[in-house]
Inverse folding.
C-alpha cells in the first residue's frame, strides 16, 4: 500500500532516535524524537518533493505509526528547511539567521556602533541574516548580512538542531539594518 498525502499534508519518516550525544549515552527517559527526516509524501510538491530531507518543526506535528514506521505528519506551511550537503536551506518564505552573541554591534569597518552589556549579549534577540528562501516576497539576497530582531517566542521561529542558527518566517521580520 502506497501512502499518498493530499491537500496541504506532509508525511515524513523520522530518522532513528539518537541514543548518544557527543559520545554520552542518553537514558530512555531523556531521549527525544529526531528532528530530521525524509519526506515520504507531500500533497503540494511546489514546496518540497518526496525523498528530500527536512528539519521537522518543533510544534504542531503529530506522530503516527503507519505501515510499521513512525511518521511525522504536519501541514506543509510548517516546513521551513531542506537539508542539503550538511546544511539547511530555507524554504516556504523562511529566512536563515544566526544569533548575534559575544560581541557588540559593529559596522563594516569594525567600529563599535552599539555597545551591549554582557547580560544583554547573552539574551540578545539580534540576529544576522545568512540565507533567504527563493520565494520570499520582501527580502532578497541583498539583505544577507543585515541584522534584524527575532521575536522571543513564536511557532515560526525554529532553532536548527544544536546550532546558533534559526529559521524565522519572513513575516516576523519588522526591519533590517546593515549597521550604517
Amino acid at each position: 500500500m502506497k501512502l499518498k498525502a493530499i491537500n496541504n499534508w506532509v508525511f515524513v519518516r523520522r530518522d532513528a532516535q539518537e541514543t548518544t550525544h557527543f559520545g554520552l549515552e542518553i537514558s530512555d527517559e531523556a531521549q527525544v524524537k529526531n528532528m530530521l527526516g525524509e519526506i515520504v509524501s507531500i500533497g503540494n510538491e511546489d514546496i518540497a518533493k518526496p525523498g528530500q530531507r527536512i528539519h521537522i518543526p518543533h510544534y504542531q506535528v503529530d506522530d503516527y505509526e503507519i505501515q510499521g514506521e513512525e511518521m511525522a505528519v504536519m501541514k506543509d506551511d510548517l516546513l521551513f528547511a531542506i537539508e542539503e550537503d550538511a546544511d539547511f536551506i530555507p524554504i516556504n518564505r523562511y529566512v536563515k539567521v544566526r544569533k548575534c552573541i559575544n560581541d557588540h554591534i559593529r559596522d563594516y569597518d569594525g567600529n563599535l556602533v552599539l555597545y551591549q552589556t554582557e547580560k544583554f549579549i547573552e539574551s540578545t534577540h539580534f540576529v544576522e541574516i545568512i540565507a533567504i528562501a527563493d520565494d520570499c516576497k520582501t527580502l532578497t539576497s541583498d539583505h544577507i548580512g543585515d541584522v534584524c530582531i527575532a521575536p522571543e517566542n513564536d511557532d515560526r521561529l525554529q532553532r536548527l538542531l544544536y546550532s546558533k542558527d534559526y529559521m524565522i518566517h519572513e513575516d516576523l521580520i519588522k526591519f533590517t539594518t546593515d549597521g550604517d
Remarks:
- The two ends are 59 Å apart (CA to CA).
